[in-house]
């Protein structure tokens, strides 16, 4: 059977996009939102899609008063362009996933992606204070606003962060910005013993230091702790750090045993592991080593994707709830069908 080659369209405005989405859903078409297109294969292979709705034409900064530390931007704006724009007024969007310029804010929010600054400023869900989303029934739904303190009701921004384009197409976000620090200093400590690297990261995580980032790295058989400074670590984060660090040594040791590399947010218990031999058996072995800690497979060859559920095990009760949320937001099941946890 010939593979379906999706048609890609870039509607000129949010209203056009919502109308096109409803039309497509009404015709039973399967739709994929596209931002920079850098990570379209993350998640389950899912069903082939018929239509790609690109946010390329939605790249404006709608509102940004310098010094207000909040901005409303369209979802197709690239992270690079936003960085340049905000830097001009001494502000920054504290989101630093490893981008090479193409990634859009809509894509970063949809995948919940982050970088070292997550240690201090949180994930996309913590920096989005308002969102406008196009639903497959054609409505444009808005939640939150420009003010940091959100209005009452379910926090739609948090629900859409990490939803991988399965609930709606994000067309606009209101973002919390932070001042660019005058100066930062990064200290790097190296070591060949995973357990000692974890202990070192732990010791740093418990210092009352204004750390912007606290990362661990493992590559070529050597580990490192990278701490970028700037003030005090709030108490709750320190307790969470303790729990996270207990597992850190296991992750480094498991990666070493499999000849892998690691980059991680030490105090948050978040690690990215790159395995050299990308076979399903190696992935499953890594998962077994990390259990019960959950793990998600991001970039992997098609053969591994077919053999391994990238999302891993999910609590059935939670899955049922997510199934109902999906059915409420996308009754036609048009958006990125089969890509999400439980093949939602
Ligand atoms: C290990 C790693 C490697 C990376 N490599 C690169 C790189 O080489 N280049 C680079 O620029 N960035 C890179 N990144 C950053 C990453 O691509 C982005 O952070 C983000 O995940 C994808 O952004 P995008 O705009 O390209 O989204 P896309 O790849 O277009 O889409 C990603 C997912 O989000 C959905 N989606 C996209 N836009 C929307 C929207 N508006 N509403 C709803 N759903 C949407 C899509 O359907 C898809 O499921 C990397 C990140 C990591 C962790």
How many strands appear in the DSSP assignment?
A: 15
Which sequence of SSEs, written as H and E, runs from N to C?
EHEEEEHEHHHEEHEEEHEEHEEHHH
Number of helices: 11
For the record, the CATH architecture of the largest domain stands as 2-Layer Sandwich
The percentage of residues in β strands lies in 15-25%
Number of domains: 2
In terms of per-residue confidence, which ranges show pLDDT below 50 for 5 or more consecutive residues? 232-237
Q: How far is the N terminus from the C terminus?
A: 24 Å
The major β-sheet equals: 5 strands, antiparallel
Helix content bin: 25-40%
Q: What is the multimeric organization of the chains shown?
A: single chain
Main CATH class of the largest domain: Alpha Beta
In terms of structural class, how would the helical and strand content be classed? alpha+beta
**What is the 3D shape?**
globular
Q: Which fold does the CATH topology of the largest domain refer to? A: Uridine Diphospho-n-acetylenolpyruvylglucosamine Reductase, domain 3
Using only C-alpha atoms, the radius of gyration works out to: 21 Å
